[in-house]
Amino acid sequence: MGKVKRERWSNEFSEWYNELLETAGIIDKRYPVKGMNVWLPYGLKIMRNIEAFIRAEMNRTGHEEVLFPALIPETEFQKEAEHIKGFEDEVYWVTHAGLDPLDVRLILRPTSETAMYSMFSLWIRSHADLPFKVYQIVNVYRYETKHTRPLIRVREISRFFEAHTAHVDFEDAERQIKEDLEIFDRLAKFLALPYIISKRPDWDKFPGAFYSLGAEIMMPDGRTLQIGTMHNYKQNFAKAYNIQYETETGDHEFVHQTTFGMSERLLAAVIAVHGDDSGMVLPPTIAPIQVVIVPIPKKDASVDVFAYAREIAEELRKAGFRVHVDERDIRPGRKYYDWELKGVPLRIEVGPRDVEGRKAVLARRDTFEKIPVERDAIVEEVKKTLDAIHENLYNRAKGFLESHIKRVDTIEEAKAVFEDRRGIVEIPWCGDEECGLKMEEELDAKMLGTPYPEEKAREGIEGKKCPVCGREAKFIARFARTY
Amino acid sequence: MGKVKRERWSNEFSEWYNELLETAGIIDKRYPVKGMNVWLPYGLKIMRNIEAFIRAEMNRTGHEEVLFPALIPETEFQKEAEHIKGFEDEVYWVTHAGLDPLDVRLILRPTSETAMYSMFSLWIRSHADLPFKVYQIVNVYRYETKHTRPLIRVREISRFFEAHTAHVDFEDAERQIKEDLEIFDRLAKFLALPYIISKRPDWDKFPGAFYSLGAEIMMPDGRTLQIGTMHNYKQNFAKAYNIQYETETGDHEFVHQTTFGMSERLLAAVIAVHGDDSGMVLPPTIAPIQVVIVPIPKKDASVDVFAYAREIAEELRKAGFRVHVDERDIRPGRKYYDWELKGVPLRIEVGPRDVEGRKAVLARRDTFEKIPVERDAIVEEVKKTLDAIHENLYNRAKGFLESHIKRVDTIEEAKAVFEDRRGIVEIPWCGDEECGLKMEEELDAKMLGTPYPEEKAREGIEGKKCPVCGREAKFIARFARTY
Predict the structure, then answer these.
(1) Where is the signal peptide (chains A, B) (predicted)?
(2) Cross-strand pairs, A426
């Protein structure tokens, strides 16, 4: 890395993040359209590993993969009133083809409800077709007017994951939301990312949703980043797109629908949460290279450190690890620097004395700890150490998240938190929109919503008052400065 | 399948093809934008298997995967004069975002040269960066004015593969074209697709290319389908996009570039070439289900055919095969029909007598042959039979292709071929554009080009005359009715 440190409480985190994305080979933001970036091979490899896990989870839970066109006719887009209101300011319009204007203008999907649901109404006929569960991973487009930021706020989301389901009734849709939460939890553990789930306030629901849940992680600068959403649409879209099924008794009912969305923000979170002043620190689960072996030749040494390194690599590969031997003709220190930047979780150093003594040294990327090991124990030690790294990344991040959630009773206390170390502030709330918006304004922060599941939203509010109106509190409301 | 047969020489092939795509679950063409289709789960699974092979080949040959934005600024698109001329009639224009017109209009990529090459000029600095080899698999857009046809001629190509390379000189670019041809040959064998390679005539080169090669297969109706292209751009784009490198002696030179392109037409070819009146016939290499086991229960039988089927399935899965046991409560005949439609290469039928005698019956999808096997020999027999199916598909298609290439000396003979069984006609040609275009007109066919490698284009032309001008023939020219 350059001179920029991963400082909190300042613009330096942003600089650190932007510089790292480029120097570590994640994306190139010099593409000549603002807010649209080029994925570089190393970044794409990490993202593919994240996607492979998501696909496996989709498969495990009976979701089928589909692929819809990226262009949606204006006429379809306009069928659900709230949805169009929510998106009309940020869609890209295709108005011409070749030299001619189009009869029906097309939008570039900002999300795929309006592309998918007229087809759902053709596909879903009877209760036997339900639950109906599909997903796709595609590019979507949003004309962001706020400051863009690679992987976080972009005008082309290159890797947008969206699962769409249809159900016989509200209860079955609720079961789906539970399954989504379970999938998300497994994914977050896979990425070593602790998170919180909030039920969004009504004024911040997904356009067209009955309710929306959001998953947030804590960024190093104390702001939160939404990395997953689950929405229960009830029958809102089903009615707009006429998605009906025949019940067992021969009646016709509208389906209940849910969606579950994620994106390349998952990668942004991994980079931001686990990284340090030396660069990225990748969880072993998604690192394209889990172990890099650096041979350290010495002049006049009678043993072949390269052959020794290759032999260890071969053994580790057979055991299922992703291994690279760095045989470049440059100083070992330079190699350490490169692989630390790229976040390789474990380095193995082998010099002539290691060859002679049938040993090696493991160097952990997360703690920089060096661990001497016996040659014959390497596979076992690597496995153990990678597991320990993953666990440490998770625990470290969990400690950080937890120490950045503070419960307060008054606006003044909440303000003090945002002035000091930021993070998430939990405040008793009467549940009225007016009071919620007032707090957002006073705190210059966003209401993430109320803790979810619902029971959690009422824990410890007995006797508490809403600090705006003074009435009895019904919920805990979470506020944060957000990305 | 319905009543439509896979007849040649008529519109029935088209009907057969369209009906099959829908009934077998490949795509749904009822999406409300003409020429843009929805990929269904089964079709997408087959396509993913094709892509996995392509990715492995890219990896093997040192190409790195990248991902570029789908939107290209008008200003970048216009840098190479021939390229814009070739594409301006068929690009989609994004002119507005939200409620405002864009300052610089954007096109939806029809191919990615103009998106990629300004970045290449930033990335490539020295001879040490060369050869530079990248690829991506993305959605591209072409406003086709001809009749659209799913997977073949579409306005959204959902699965467009494009490899782009840069080299120190023309010779190294030529080596790349050879590597592309080798990759293509391995892929074609993987898909059991025999093909021919032709060097396109100058008037049909890719816009901006120095020369273009095309790979064609023979469709059941005697028309050809282009399923791969390789282009040597020489320095045309490098000069337009200023892609220079520093040589070992410190000079600056423009790179030489090539591209290699394929798409979902690969799947169209597989379906069309191998299919029959009962539906698809998938090569085992890409079949999502390679073996389907159909238990045939009989009333009052004392043995459990389902348990026996599951046991066989488990053993086959352990041996690495993709297996499905069809336990639905419907007649076996209905199951045969479904899986034949979906092209599953091998069916295993097990009835009570098979359980008792520890036997089973294999049914080949390609020949409908039934093969009784011993229980203990099943894994081995399945392997052998799947290999035999793949080989038979290839040989059958090869025979068909070869019997549809006819060499003639005169326009009259050529016309007779197109009136009779169609296919590819090879005619001696002087090499002049005027004579070539004249033949295209007279035959109402397209010149695919001259056989490639170049030596093949001159085989057997001694003493032959160009049938248009009567001058000495310099090449063999291939003509066909094309998709």
Answers:
(1) none
(2) A407, A478
SS3 for B467?
coil
pLDDT-derived band at A126 (thresholds 50, 70, 90) equals: very high
- Residue A161, SS3? strand
pLDDT tens across A329-366, in order?
A: 999 999 999 999 999 999 999 999 999 999 999 999 99
Cβ-based contacts of B45 with chain A (< 8 Å)? 65
Residues 6+ positions from A427 with CB-CB distance below 8 Å? A407, A408, A409, A411, A414, A439, A467, A476, A477, A479
Classify strands B224-234 and B256-262 as parallel, antiparallel or unpaired. Answer: antiparallel
* β-strand partners of B394: none
Minimal Cα distance from A84: which residue of B? B98
Structure tokens at A66: 């589909």
Distances from the Cα of B86 to the Cα of B68, B203, B360, B406, angstroms: 21, 11, 58, 32
- Render pLDDT for A18-46 as a digit per residue (tens, 0 to 9): 999 999 999 999 999 999 999 999 999 99
pLDDT at B279: 96
Rounded Cα gap, residues A156 and A170, in angstroms: 33
Chain A: residue whose CA lies nearest to B107: A94
Q: Do A99 and B89 touch (CB under 8 A)?
A: yes
Specify which residues A245 forms β-bridges with: A253
Chain A residues with beta carbon closer than 8 angstroms to that of B88: 98-99
Domains of chain B: 12-274 (3.30.930.10), 291-385 (3.40.50.800), 405-480 (3.30.110.30)
Size of interface A-B (CB pairs under 8 A): 144
Q: Nearest CA to B132 among B183, B176, B174?
A: B176
β-bridge mates for residue A324, sequence order? A292
3-class DSSP assignment, residue B341: helix
Asked if B33 lies within 8 A of A69 by C-beta distance, the reply is yes
The answer, yes or no, to whether the previous bond of A131 is cis (omega within 30 of 0) is: yes
Chain B residues 84-143 with a CB less than 8 Å from chain A: 88-99, 106, 108, 115, 118-119, 122-123, 134, 139, 141, 143
| Cis peptide bond N-terminal to A288, omega within 30 | no
In angstroms, the first-to-last Cα distance of chain A is 24
* Mean residue pLDDT across chain B: 95
- Residues A33, B68: C-beta atoms closer than 8 Å: no
Averaged pLDDT for residues B194-216 = 97
Q: What average pLDDT does the segment B124-128 reach?
A: 97
Which amino acid is located at B25 in the chain? G
Token couple for B326: 């069809």
Q: With a CB-CB cutoff of 8 Å, which residues 17-46 of chain B face chain A?
A: 28, 30-33, 36-41, 44-45
8 Å CB contact of A97 and B143:
yes
Q: Identify any residues that bridge with A138 across adjacent strands, giving them in sequence order.
A: A160
Are B264 and B161 in contact by the 8 Å Cβ rule? The answer is no
CA distance B322 to B202: 46
Average pLDDT, chain A: 95
Residue B418 has pLDDT above 70, yes or no: yes
